[in-house]
Amino acid sequence: MATPSAEPAAAQTHHQFPLPKILEYPASTPPTLITQGAEGRLYRSTYLVPDLPCALKYRPPKPWRHPTLDQRLTKHRILSEARILAKCRRDGVRVPAIYAVDETAGWLMLEWIHGGPIRARINERLGKRTEGIAEDAELKDLMRRMGAAVGKMHQVGVVHGDLTTSNLMLNPSPASADSDSKNFLDGEVVIIDLGLASGSTSEEDRAVDLYVLERAFGSTHPRAECVFSELLDAYRGMFKQAPGVLKKLEDVRMRGRKRSMLG
Amino acid sequence: MSLETITLDHLPSSHEVHAVLFRDVKNAPFLHQQLLARNSDFEYGLVDASVVVSRLQLLSAVFKATLTAVNGALKTPNVHSEIVIALNSSSNIADSYRRFGISPSTKDLIAVKVTFPAEDGTEPLTSEQIWEHLKANVEGEALAITDDNISAATDLAKVRKYYKLNGLKWLDDIKDEKLKLKEVETLVIGGMALRGV
Ligand SMILES: Nc1ncnc2c1ncn2[C@@H]1O[C@H](COP(=O)(O)OP(=O)(O)OP(=O)(O)O)[C@@H](O)[C@H]1O
Ligand SMILES: [Mg+2]
């Protein structure tokens, strides 16, 4: 018989923010707050049993919004993210699995992705280096896997809406966790945070997705801009409409430049 | 005793889950009849094991049903009927009972009981009491609800039909059967979580 931990879990650890009710019940691992964003919070905990870590994405009530409207918006956003995740997963796009949803309470319980955001992995990789980045084969290979992941998502008819290297995770494969693996950037690219995603197959929407990623990449990893073309190159090979999207990307860039010139 | 008592994360610790698998059940029509007659001695979640792929799927349904009960949002008479409908990936209640609940032709059966202190202060049944009752009333071979025992009873074709998992090429292409089953489990749990919404 499993022994329940003391109740409530909240009493064991000090929490800066009030916990969602679901996390006040005992769990084998007390919940830890991972990030606190503008819209929501992300906790790490366990799902059902001690050996299954999970991510709980919680959108707390916004006291400045009308309660009824707030409930409706939260519900809508939770369900929309859950539906998109389910669609991606069914269509073979690597996103976190969904364990449980309570849209009324404002949370989503997801598979925990190990390994951390790609942003951190690339930064670690670059270190203080300024030379040899364009020749970094492992980094270029990671860029290609990122391009393949985004291409796959676009292929099944989903655009992300907020592609950054923080919303792409690098999940080490069980094999690469072995000591004999030398490649630091090994692993599976997992797309997360589909809170702003939607179903679309339009060339324009896909190109904007890539543009957002390109801009985010350039400002987060300016020294690695030289390898971004690897990502686009891998994307090109993923589905029939990809070359058209890349053509469109040139227009989107042009518009972006004009807009920034106008200030 | 093959009946296992489990406490699940993120549920009040006063709620305990008792579960056991019965293979080659001989008296499914009798058990089914007890549910139809609303015999309160037979308040169990009685699940047809052929539509269950793993322990995690079963526990997911129990978790969802118990949380719904704790939140006072049951859509069916009690937490035990709620376990059966929690297995469905769509929201039709009659369909849920038909597909996931016991029927007169059920061969392998999972019995689940969720216990908690009653509002009037009555003590919940102990696992020994539950086990005595099940042993006396279910004619079948009792086994622990491990993944291996569950797998032996799973009808994968039925699972893939009920959870609309046919025609997924990437899934069919997975050669490693264990890995494929893991992916099926993930899709099933995701489908249950969304229940058609
Ligand atoms: N399934 C997961 N497994 C592990 N870590 C995760 C998971 N989901 C999210 N995270 C971590 O939590 C962070 C925030 O998650 P996410 O981006 O989904 O939430 P968010 O509220 O939209 O945040 P923001 O909009 O501020 O980026 C991620 O950058 C990542 O580090
Ligand atoms: Mg994010």
CATH architecture of chain B: 2-Layer Sandwich
Strand order of the largest sheet of chain A: 1-2-3-5-4
Which sequence of SSEs, written as H and E, runs from N to C of chain B? Answer: EEHEHHHEHEHHHH
What portion of residues of chain A is helical?
Answer: 25-40%
What integer is the average pLDDT of chain B?
95
Protein name (chain A): EKC/KEOPS complex subunit BUD32
GO molecular function, one term (chain A): protein serine/threonine kinase activity
EC number (chain A): 2.7.11.1
Subunit structure (chain A): Component of the EKC/KEOPS complex composed of at least BUD32, CGI121, GON7, KAE1 and PCC1; the whole complex dimerizes.
Structure description:
The complex is a heterodimer of chains A (263) and B (197). Chain A is of the alpha+beta class and 263 residues long. Chain A has 6 helices and 9 strands; from the N terminus they run βββαββααββββααα. In chain A, helix 3 (137-155) packs across helix 5 (228-236) and helix 4 crosses helix 6 (242-262). By secondary structure, chain B is of the alpha+beta class. Chain B has a single domain (4-194), classed as CGI121/TPRKB (PF0523-like), CATH 3.30.2380. In chain B, 44% of the residues lie in helices and 13% in strands. In chain B, helix 2 (55-70) crosses helix 3 (79-86), helix 2 packs parallel to helix 9 and helix 3 (79-86) crosses helix 4. The longest helix of chain B is centred in the C-terminal third of the chain and has 18 residues, at 177-194. Bound molecules: adenosine-5'-triphosphate and magnesium ion. The site of magnesium ion (MG) has 3 residues of chain A, from loops. Chain B: Belongs to the CGI121/TPRKB family. Chain B: It is found in: Nucleus. Chain B: One of its GO terms (cellular component) is EKC/KEOPS complex. Chain B: Keywords: Nucleus, tRNA processing.
